[in-house]
Amino acid sequence: MPQTNLHEAQAAIEAILFAAAFPLSVKDLAAAIQIDEDTTAKLLRELGDRHSVPESGIVLSKLDGSFILMSRPEYAPFVENLSARQRPAPLSPASIETLSIIAYRQPVTRGEIERIRGVSSDSSIATLSERGLIAEVGRRNSVGRPVLYGTTPEFLMYLGLTSLSDLPPLPESEDQ
Amino acid sequence: MKVDTEGFSGPLDLLLSLIEKKQIDICEVSISDIADDYLEQVSAMEWLDIDQAAEFLIIAATLLYIKVRALLPPEEVPEELAAATSEMTDPRAELVARLVEYRRYRDAARVLRNLEAVGSRMYTRPLRPLPTPTVRANPVEGLTGHDLLQAYLDASSSIPEEFPYLPADEIPIATQMVSVLVRLARKGKLGLFEFLGGARSRHLLVSTVLAVLELVRRGRISASQPAPFGEIWMFATSQAIGGAADELT
């Protein structure tokens, strides 16, 4: 049944986003509440504004054009108190270095990563793949057809980024 | 495997931090000075992994090579050495370029580290697999609670309501087995539905059906259904007679 009342439509969007544990696109949401995408996008913006106050424990995060409700980072310690487990360990220096090379140079081969880092990066690549932050995205058409790595939507969520273009610019080398 | 030797993610990380400790620009740095610091650090490290040690030593060798070249006056560079390196780029320039390139990603990693501190602590409910996009037809489409009630009433109408709350006597299956065998002995064959139609209660119905199944399983009777959905006829087998009394034990 089409939603005619915009307040109800916004509440419906909120309900869907709460129930779905995965990011939803404007298109998905528009189809679910049977309202045009422009109106849905507008309602999403309003919903985001409503949650963007410190008193809201929940934030509406945008992720690669999709939306998901997440806990506000300021309240993370309390959420972590609830769980018997500690917060997941941050990435090791080697892994986050490898991740930065993949993020800024993707798609990139293992060889290129190792050339820049000057060290074998097998275990870092394995860790990052295991945590779902990177994935194989294809193969380069060169000798040996090496695997190309790129970042995943999980990567964006992990760093709280809305899209790859949201990555802070790569530091310029002042010596060049 | 020990990955981050003494907190350094690799030889370039170590080299860069030594340069930065001296607060000198990468391009201005005296590789000879740095080479000594680097070798001192590397020799103090505990090596658990031979491949990793090799990576640190390659840079050590490069540093030493650069140092040696710098110490020798240009005209005294041995011929073999000059020949070996003539087609190569200047090793110092090459190392500096690598360090400059490496530093960009190391600094970017520090930015990502800050993002990680916030982003990784925004929680969602546990991710579940996306539901399959195909919408499956609803098998009870259009059915209402009333339909279910009606179906139940239709199904139960053939059996008289028992008085509620009073515990009904359980009818032993053995009793019904004897009853079936006795009737068969008298009539030769018996229609299942006809026989069940005489059941006065659900308890009796259930134990009769179980009794029939048990008899078939034991080979005491046989059953056949000549037409689909038709009457199921039960017959006494040769083993049927004489055992009736045993069923009670």
Largest interface by Cβ-Cβ < 8 Å: A-B, 46 and 48 residues
User: For the record, what CATH class of the largest domain in chain A applies?
Assistant: Mainly Alpha
**Mind telling me which CATH architecture of the largest domain in chain A this is?**
Orthogonal Bundle
Q: Which structural class should the secondary elements of chain B be placed in?
A: mainly alpha
Enumerate how many helices of chain A there are, as a single number.
8
How many separate helices of chain B?
9
User: What assembly state would you assign to the polypeptide chains in this entry?
Assistant: heterodimer
- Label the overall shape of chain B: rod-shaped
Report the span from N to C terminus of chain B.
73 Å
Biggest β-sheet: strands ordered side by side in the sheet of chain A = 1-3-2
| Number of structurally distinct domains of chain A | 2
Order of helices and strands of chain B: HHHHHHHEHHEE
Residue-averaged pLDDT of chain B: 76
Count of distinct strands of chain A: 6
